[in-house]
Design brief:
Distance between the termini: 21 Å
Radius of gyration: 24 Å
Oligomer: single chain
Largest sheet: 2 strands, antiparallel
Number of helices: 9
Number of strands: 2
Strand content: under 5%
Helix content: 55-70%
Strand order of the largest sheet: 1-2
Shape: globular
């Protein structure tokens, strides 16, 4: 009966509905072109606006819906990350700051990856009915899976964006990296161009805490530094000579290659969460201004 009432209500609106679909498609196409051009021409402002949206919008819904668990996690992440950003933007830059920054964001990246995978497995666990064998309610196991998946993806996106900002500030301060051309400082042998500190472990040796990594261009770096620079900080060039980095050669085993795919998923999620609601809101505003139901 309700379905029939819906048809009666919208009878004769077929042309109007077709017009609304065309408006939606046109808006999506135009928005995509604008966002791509903005990202290519003004990459820094695009990332900054997107990051602010990703950071503030969940806070609004958290306070409105009383999600205190997420608010506490968000607050702890924000406090520590704010301190990390503060240290990364100081001049002169402390010799310990770059490694501290990359270690923190590499930790966030790995934790978000692990939590996201566990959340996905929990969802699959529930969908295939395995929760029955452990006498777990489907609602409870599904809630846990969705929450863990959201936490992993959200903090993964936030960590990568903040890491990119810190990478730019620290690299410009240290002077071994210049995005537009030649670096302002000459790199001497045995120095890591990411953090500016001496490398104590040879490339062929196995380090106790971390190894030394050599890119195809011949420059060597601390393992934590170059992984944080390329995988987390989203820089796919050598920190000194700007030569293209082959991320696949940086992975020691096939399992680690999933980290690159995970990073690409986070980039797609950023567009979905930050910009899709705005685009849909614009579509509704156009429909309302034209009197379309």
């Amino acid at each position: 009966v309700q379905h029939e009432r819906l048809h009666i209500k919208h009878r004769g609106h077929e042309a109007m509905h077709a017009e609304m679909v065309l408006i939606l498609i046109a808006t999506l196409v135009v928005a995509q072109i604008v966002l791509v051009q903005w990202k290519q021409r003004h990459h820094r402002s695009y990332n900054l606006v997107t990051l602010v949206q990703m950071w503030v919008v969940p806070l609004y819904f958290t306070i409105k819906l009383y999600w205190w668990r997420f608010l506490s996690m968000w607050g702890m992440f924000s406090v520590i990350t704010s301190y990390i950003i503060f240290r990364a933007t100081r001049k002169p830059l402390s010799c310990r700051t770059p490694r501290m920054v990359y270690k923190w964001f590499l930790l966030i990246y790995k934790l978000s990856y692990a939590v996201g995978v566990l959340g996905y497995l929990a969802i699959m666990f529930t969908m295939f009915g395995f929760n029955v064998f452990f006498r777990i309610k489907a609602e409870d196991s599904m809630d846990v899976g969705v929450i863990m998946l959201f936490y992993g993806l959200y903090y993964g996106v936030m960590g990568r964006d903040f890491a990119e900002i810190c990478s730019d500030y620290m690299a410009s301060t240290i002077g071994y990296y210049n995005k537009g051309g030649m670096p302002s400082r000459s790199l001497s042998g045995g120095i890591c161009a990411v953090c500016g500190q001496r490398i104590l472990v040879e490339v062929e040796e196995e380090g106790f805490i971390e190894d030394t990594f050599q890119l195809s261009c011949g420059h060597i770096f601390h393992e934590f530094c170059i992984r944080g620079w390329c995988i987390v900080g989203k820089k796919q060039t050598c920190p000194y000579c700007n030569e293209k980095v082959d991320l696949k050669r940086m992975m020691n085993n096939p399992w680690e290659k999933t980290h690159v795919l995970y990073g690409q998923l986070l980039d797609w999620l950023r567009y979905l969460v930050a910009w899709q609601p705005i685009i849909i809101g614009i579509v509704h505003g156009i429909n309302f201004s034209l009197g379309l139901e």
